[in-house]
Amino acid sequence: MAEFAAHGANQEEKMAAEKAKKTIVIGHKNPDTDSICSAIGYANFKTLQTGGEYVPCRAGELNPETTFVLDYFKVDVPKLIKSVKTQVKDIEIRETPGVSKNISLRKAWNLMQEDGLVTLPAVTDKNILEGLITVGDITRSYMNVYDSSILSKACTQYANIIETLEGAIFVGDEKEYFDKGKVLIAAANPDMMEYYIEENDLVILGNRYESQLCAIEMGASCIIVCEGAGVSMTIKKLAQERGCTVITTPYDTYTAARLINQSMPISYFMTKENIIEFSEEDYLDDIREIMASKRHRDFPILDSDGKYIGMISRRNLLGAKGKSIILVDHNEKSQAVEGMESADIREIIDHHRLGTVETMSPVFFRNQPLGCTATIIYQMYQENHIEIDKTTAGLLCSAIISDTLLFRSPTCTPMDRAAAVSLAEMAGIKLDEFANQMFEAGSELKGKSDAEILYLDFKKFSAGKTNFGVGQINSLNAEELGKLKNRMLPFMEKAREDEGLDMIFFMLTNILTETTELLCVGQGAAQVVADAFHVGDANEELKQTATLPGVVSRKKQLIPALTVTLEQ
Q1: Could you please report the per-residue DSSP string of 399-413?
Q2: pLDDT tens digits, residue range 294-341?
Q3: Among the CATH numbers 3.40.190.10, 3.20.20.10, 3.10.310.20, 3.30.465.10, which is that of 450-567?
C-alpha cells in the first residue's frame, strides 16, 4: 500500500509540475489572422480547461489585417518568439544562495557541507556576482599556506576570528580588520617574547598575566587568550590605551593556532576574474561546448539585469526538456518557428495537409478538413462546455472570415459558416460590414516595401525534389493588385535566390471577382503553372503571370495542383 501511495504522490507531483510549466501556443512564420487569433483563442481555452499557464505567441510580424483585428477588439499583440530552442531558463537552475565575500573560509566550508555544494558564489547586497569559491580553493588554502602574515594579507575581520574560534571580544571593535603583522604563539618565557613579537602582530597565548602584558607592551594589535582564561582589569585598561584588541576563546593554543587561518575571508582565495558565467537567455546548444571544455563543475547564471540567480552544472543539461509548445494552424517544419526540433511539442491543432513535423513522443493532434483552424477551436469550446467571451469570439470569427474570404473560398465548409455566424453573434458584430473593414485594412499596401508585401503571408513547401514558396495578397482593390505585377517579379527572383528556393509563386487574389493573378519565378515555374492549371503552353513565350479564375485558396486549390504537377 505504501508503494501505491508513493506512486500516487509522485504522479501528483508530476501533474503539479506540468501544470506550473508555461506552455507556448504559437502559429507559423509570417502569421496570418488565423495563426494569431487561433493561438490567442486556444491559449485561453487551455487555461480555462486545465488551470495551467498557456501563453499565445507569434513567430513573425503581423500583417495589416491582423493588426486591425487586434486593435478592433483591444487585444495585446502576442509576444514575438524567434526561436524555441532550449534556453538556460528552461532547465532546473539550482538556487544556491550567494554569500558575502567577507565570510570566513570556515563558514563557507560549513555551508558547503550542509548543502552538499562544491561551489559558492560571492555576491553584493544587490546580487551582483563578485567571485566564486570552491571546495578545492579552500583545500588549497590549507595545504599551501606557510606564511605567518597571510591572515593580515587577507585583511581578516575580527568578527571572523571570533566566529571561527567561538570566542568573545573583551576589548576592541569586531568590525575592525587585522591587516598588518603576523600570527604568533606565545609559548616562550615572557623575557624571550620581546625578541620575536613585533608591532601589529596577533599573539595567541594562555592565561599568564606576564605574557599578556608583554604582548601588549610590544605593540601587538591583537591578543587571543585561550582556554577561556579571564582577563584582568589591568590588562583590559592597558589594551584599551594601546589600541590592542583582546579576544578570548575556549580552545587551547594548539587548536586556536590550527583554526585561526580558517577565519580568513573567502575574497582572498576566490576566483574573481575570467569567470565563466551564462545568462538565463542563453541557448543550451551554445553553452554545451563551453561547459565541456572547462574543468569547473558549476557555472553561475545571471538574469537579464546581470544579477546572480543560481548555478547549473553539466548534469543539469542531461535529459533537459525543451520548451513546452502547442502548434496551431500548421504542421510543416519549414513553416514552424526556429528550434522546434528541440521543443517539447504537446499538441497540434491544424486544418492543413499533414506535413513534416516530427515529435519525440505521442501528442494530441487534431486535424480536420475545415476552412480555418479557428473553427476547430470553436468546436472544442462547445464540446467542453466552456463559455466563449465576447473578445475571444470576435478573434475566432475574424480568423474564419480571413481564411474563408467570408465563405468565398472553396475551403469553406458549412461548419465554418455556422461557427462564424455563431461567433459574430457572441462578439456583437455584423459579418458583412466587419469583413469589409478587415479586407480593406488588409489590402492597404501603401508605403510597404516589396519584401513586406511578399512576406505578409508567405509559406514554404516541398514536392518531389522541388522546394518552393507561395505568397498571397487578398485585396478588394483591382487597380492596386494590377500595379504589383511588374513591381514584384524582380524582387521575387531575388527572394528566391536568398531563400535558396527553386521556385516562388505569388497570388494576387481579388476577393470581389474571386480571381487570382499568379506570378511565378524560377526555372520551369511557368511550365508548372501551365500544366497544373491548363492555361496554355508556357514555352510559347516566357510567361511569368497567369490569370486563374475561381482560384482563391492557396491551401485547397493552388498547393495541391502544384504538388501533383511537380511530383509527376
Answers
A1: HHHHHHTTTTSTT--
A2: 877 889 999 999 999 999 988 888 878 889 999 999 998 888 999 888
A3: 3.10.310.20
